[in-house]
TrEMBL record, chain B:
Annotated compartments: Cell membrane
InterPro entries per UniProt: ABC_transp_permease (IPR001851)
Protein name: Ribose ABC transporter permease
Domain of life: Bacteria
Transmembrane feature ranges: 21-38, 50-72, 78-95, 102-123, 129-149, 170-191, 222-239, 259-289, 301-320
GO molecular function annotation: transmembrane transporter activity
Stored Pfam families: BPD_transp_2
CDD domains associated with the record: TM_PBP1_transp_AraH_like
Record has Cell inner membrane as a keyword: yes
Amino acid sequence: MTKPRSFLINIRYADAVMASPQDYILQVRGLTKLFAGVVALDNVQLNVRMGEVHALMGENGAGKSTLMKLLIGLLKPDSGEISFDGNDLTTSHVRDVIRQGISMIHQEMLVVPELTVAQNIFLGREANGKLFSWLNDRNLTEQAAQLLKQMGVNIRPDTQMKYLSVAQMQMVEIAKAISNNAKVIIMDEPTSALSDKEVAMLFSIIIDLKKKGVAIIYISHKMEEIFTIADTITVLRDGKYIATKPAAEFDIHTLITMMVGREIDTLFPISTIQPGKEVLSVRQLSRKGKFSDINFDVHEGEVLGIAGLMGAGRTEIACAIYGLDPADGGELYIKGEKVVINAPQDAIQHGIGYVSEDRKQFGFIPRLSVRENITLASLPKYAKGLLVQAKSESEVADAMMADLRIKASSSNQPVVQLSGGNQQKVVIGKILLSSPSLIILDEPTRGIDIGAKAEIYKLINQLKEAGTAIILISSELPELLGLSDRILVVSQGKQTAVLLAKEATQETIMHYAMEP
Amino acid sequence: MEKDFTLIKGDGYGVLHMRNIGKYVLLIVLVAICIALSMTTPRFFTIQNLMIIVTQVSINALLAFGVTFVIITGGIDLSIGSIVAVTGVVAASFAHADTYPVIVPIGVGLLAGLLFGAFNGFVVTRTKVPPFIVTLGTMTIGRGLALILSKGRPISNLSDSFNFIGGGKVLGVPTLIIILVVFFGICTVILKKTVIGRYMYAVGGNEQAAKASGIQLSKVKMVVYTLCGGLAALAGILLTSRITTGQPNAGAGFELDAIAAAIIGGTSTSGGAGTMIGTLLGALLIGVISNGLDLLNVTSYYQQVVMGVIIIGAVVLNSLKQPSN
């Protein structure tokens, strides 16, 4: 054996140690997935070590969900391979993937409402999933009780799922993933419905799992969470693999730049316009059990932010102004004239538009096209007699699409196929088409990635410059501070402060929001 | 505090629990109607009349059990009335006196129903055609097959042993009642105590969740439609035996009565909820009301109006039971 040769071998050995395949519990190579000829995932790789929290970052539409669905076996790749713990999982069925030891907590909360908590936890694994065998519900319920107790969650395992809160359902989904004795757990936005206390609980569960060697693939839009919990970060963009690095080598700025692919220097646009005439005045507005004695004004070209904790009454105030749940006390004035708003039609007639926080439920009709959704609320304008004038409808919709920079293949694409950010723009476009003088935006950037957020901010600013009065409800304080002129703070249904945004800080807002 | 998970059942009729009160409504309504009828007509509450009601109800109830499985998974089966005709005709052709032993017509009839149901399941799972359309198609196909196989004529002159299975009595109890009780038990156990039963609720309650839990949707649906076909075949054989004739026109409209029984019994038309006891009570309610109205000399025209009102009322009642967010 000559010296140089053994030297070579040594180098190779060292290389092998650094990136030894045995270190990785899960390896994805060259994964590609096409949907109807469109590349959703392009030659993507992912290497996950035992006992690490591996964050997967990317904007909506970057391919994270597609990658996860391929991993868990809900989709089959067009090319590439997935190997897990020495086994090839590339074309395995979900059932086998789960049995091999990969679990997934789905973002869209995949639960069966009529079944009990225990039945949901063990769904698909009763008696090893053999179709024709007996059930032992008592046994399952006892196992579930024990599991939930270990997690420190106080939920009765025999309760039907439909009686749980969203946060409780989320905890059950987590219990389900853990109960599988999985070696890899995929968590897709696991904290979207959880309170701070429950997030802390989840994180301590994650740390326990890590100690047992379980790998977590963690997807979240919340940056603080990523930097708290992640060991490694992989970034995807436009369906392509960008990079994998230890979390310590990232800061928020580099991570966002990598995700977006361009520098986002000024997230909040600067506005120079001075507020003009009064558009809406609210006096002593009350609704029994929800809020009372609310007083504020909004002016042309002004953004009034509404801050408050969950359940403080923010959305309820908006719903009262828009007539969804009318107020039972107090007065509303539009441009100085007293008005009565008992239903959304009244509000629309007075030039008020409302973008709901729940865009899936109230915002758009999924299967209808971008065009049909945009013109939905103002269709009579584009009709002669009974017939919709296709040409003028299309022109208007195309113009709105261009104005709002809605990314869709054409105005005929169903809204359900768009990303969250673009769906939100469609909803806003629909409201804008009725040219309201006041727009209420309720959590307009919830669940939207950072690039689309920046565009929504720009849009809010444009509306403001055009003289529209805006009420902005948001749980994200930087967003409120960056966009608002004044901020109304509510706490437990009471108004506790109206602050000038220039002078307010996150701390002062929180102080008033917590005021009893 | 965590320790006192008293394991009460979240479903079923066994335990009184605030949330389960709604499930007793149907029973209470049924009992109230029975009491009212007993007071208005002396002929109602007699052993003989009650046996007549249950006998009359049994064939509809068997069909309703089958369609309950299907509706729980979020599907529908409109072809069961036609399966009754096909299987009745098939069984009758093998049931002439002095030909085959009675097990042959029963076996062949059941096999025909299972195959028919499996065909429904096959088309539903292999194509994206909604079950409503698929079974609307097979309903017509089935009716045609029954007419073809019988050459459009009733098949009579059946053996005594064949006529016994749907028309006889054992220890004074009509065979139909015995068969009803047995199959009520079997269907309840399938739904509540087996893995496939659990999967029916899961598939109908949230198909995506079921899929993500590794449940093979197509297998579950195949089983369900096949089972429904099998129960329809049983109903077809019993009906043929009871009327001692294989009728190609038998069972027309039966699917609607069966679906009505399931829905009155609390089966959710959107899937994911329903019980066999509910369906049985639904079938009994339909039977009791039509019997009662007969005894009160109300014409069948009015009976149909009453029945329609009851179906809608039952669904309204069920919607009131749902928790609101």
